[in-house]
User: What shape does this take?
Amino acid sequence: MKRMLIITLSAFIGVFALTACHGAVASRSFSVPDGFDESRNIEITFWAKNDTNVTQTKIYSKAIEDFEELYPNITVNMRLYTDYGKIYNDVITNISTDTTPNVCITYPDHIATYLTGSNTVVPLDELMTDENYGLGGKNLKFESPTVDEIIPEFLQECRIDGTCYCLPYMRSTEACYVNKTYVEKLGYTLPRTLTWDFIWEVSEKAMETDTDGTYKVNGQNVMIPFIYKSTDNMMITMLKQKGAPYTDYDGSIQLFNDDTKEILKTVAEHTGTGAFSTFKISGYPANFLNAGQCIFAIDSTAGATWMGSDAPLVDIAKDKIVDFETEVMMLPQFDTSKPYMMSQGPSVCIFNKADSQEVLASWLFTQYLLTNEVQIAYSETEGYVPVTSKAQLSPEYQEYLELAGTDNTTHYDVKIKAARLLMENADKTFITPVFNGSASVRDAAGQLIENVTKSVRRKKTVDDAYFESLYKETEALYHLDQSKVQAGGKAELGELPTASRLLITGLVVVWILIGLYWAKELILHRNR
Assistant: This one.
């Protein structure tokens, strides 16, 4: 009888708990421990992104090896991914089972979604300023950068609703890689700053053909003058340059506006002539650029090692490469007096765990990724730039920049020009608002351009009726037609539906009555 009463009361408490909260189960928030316990062994997992760059993998492995030598009680297990999207999907899947990694290379847009779980990602403000183990802390076994030595624009990108949830790892921007030889062959001179009008005009000129059907500019059967790798960046950047709305920090979605339509009409026009295409439709811009089949290839500065006649990394046969002069330029602008380009690149976040020592170990490793040794080595593999002034101003990195063009591997001139482009124009970069759902808005922005480009190629009519339908379909596809989410990464779930509240209330009443009945029987049994 006692057992039955306990079961009844437990069930009642469980049902009551259901009525008290609606959302993810909260976990304990992290507090910085007084010290790091080096007497016990700790294992942490590190999820990182790497394509096919073996050098980058070796840099990660060397960083782990050197870190474990400093902290023999910490073991770092690395798992490599080929795509940030796959990391994102696996983290989302593992949040519900509390099997997230300890340290993860990711993007703030993704972190905003991770934050829908309570205390899932560790806020770093307290850790960063901790006297002993914070950035530049006195108890660290390595030379960590201080807060002031992280480039302010890059650190600001890591804040969500005022709280820092990650540290920047590497930064890049987008560049326009130009076949300067072909531009001049077409009768043009590159301006100091590219404009969209210039890009479109030259691209259309490049579509002229000879009597045999080959293109005049390259003598080949293939020519796509302008290819953009990331169409989400294309749409977002063009809206920013126009001063047009996109989203705000309250999670308000403003993408579907008249300025967006004008951009899409321009895309449709030049797609129709064959002057424009995208990576998803045609393939990597670098492949077309290097084969003399593209004049303006817009891609990340991190992809600079694939760009140009002498590129150390290429995906086409050497006999297909055309010799030309490559220029690395800022993105085309609407207003050259107010240029804008996007700041992008991976950051590092830490996931909360029940063991505060495990979290502290994760924080120590995260900091180690910002040391000069790791930052300089990794940035030299591609067109990334270190995220700290400590690394950027170091004699080692300055020597690396000065040796541009002395070889076509480590000091490949196009790669170093791409890095300098960001370093010299960091004040012209911008970021977009981050909130739970911002990644979906970004995807939708790119999908608009992709759909219009595909529709034109399929000879569909692209008019106002088409755009109205496109907006509605894209809004529904990415669930942007639902109630907006709050900035700071937490979805506003709202009140439970009336039917659900009545059901739970009914269950509570039934269990109370059952509890009272068994309590009465227990009392009568004792009085017999």
User: Anything to note?
Assistant: The CA atoms of residues 44 and 76 lie 5 Å apart. The two ends are 15 Å apart (CA to CA). The chain has 20 helices and 16 strands.
